Amino acid sequence: xxxxxxxxNAGIDLLCPVPHLPRPGETLVARGASRAPGGKGLNQxxxxxxxxxxxxxxxxxxxxxxxxxxAAALAGEPLAALTLLPQDAATDLSLLMVAPDAExxxxxxxxxxxxxxxxxxxxxxxxxxxxxxxLLQGNLSERATRAALRVAxxxxxxxLLNTAPLSWPMAPLLPLxxxxxxNAGEAEALTGRQGAxxxxxxxxxxxxxxxxxxxxxxxxxxxxxxxxxxPAPAARAVDTTGAGDTFCGLLAAxxxxxxxxxxxxxxxxxxxxxxxxxxxxxxxxxxxxxxxRAELRALRAGAGA
Length: 305
Known about the structure:
By secondary structure, the protein is α/β, with parallel strands linked by helices. The chain is built from ten helices and 13 strands. Helix 2 (65-74) links the parallel strand 4 (55-61) and strand 5 (81-86). Helix 6 (184-191) crosses helix 7 (195-204) and helix 9 (263-280) packs across helix 10.
């Protein structure tokens, strides 16, 4: 059975509802706070595992109580394997501010993720085999990300890169990616273009396939077969924080099951991932909003997947 290796961050999210997103110099009073597991790597791994993929999550964490908290929370998830790599840095922490219109602002501390070495990234990717899929995000350092991508390619595995957060130059790594997923802002920063043109430019920069997510505008995909637009399902958004992670996690699980990431499988995978993301925005939080195993089974059953 093919496996999905998620090499990414795991941390703690502090969710604070605010009357509006902060303006420069403004002090806001939050309407409460909640604490939950988080991190793009963790969230995407959990969604993929709940969707039935054989997921191995490898995540750098601190030598602290937060790391133990994460281990306890993940013990209840259907991960095939979990490797938390202790670093000499505090476990990552994110502050999520969410406005009444569902827009959000996120401030992250990522010292543990950034501390992951090239050697550790290579060692994690060395377990990959042909047919496996590597899923990465932008939280790790450029050097660690490059190292993992190169080993995955040498091992005959495919790689999916989610460009969030865009904190270092990712364009040179695109030729190592079977698929890149970027939101509208990230895609424009990488290519200087927008929408479908940005997806096409990401392919031109070396990615085998590219998806640019456009929020309520759906997403644009560029493949060897050409450009396509995928409208977003209607949803009454409460909090969009976990939508991208839901989309990427389910997309990875679906493509893992497709032979060589077959082109014919991409469009239905996008549609199903969009439906899951639309479900996640209808409730607050990131981890708490991720679709459950039952919800994902129902979505896949309804789509015949």
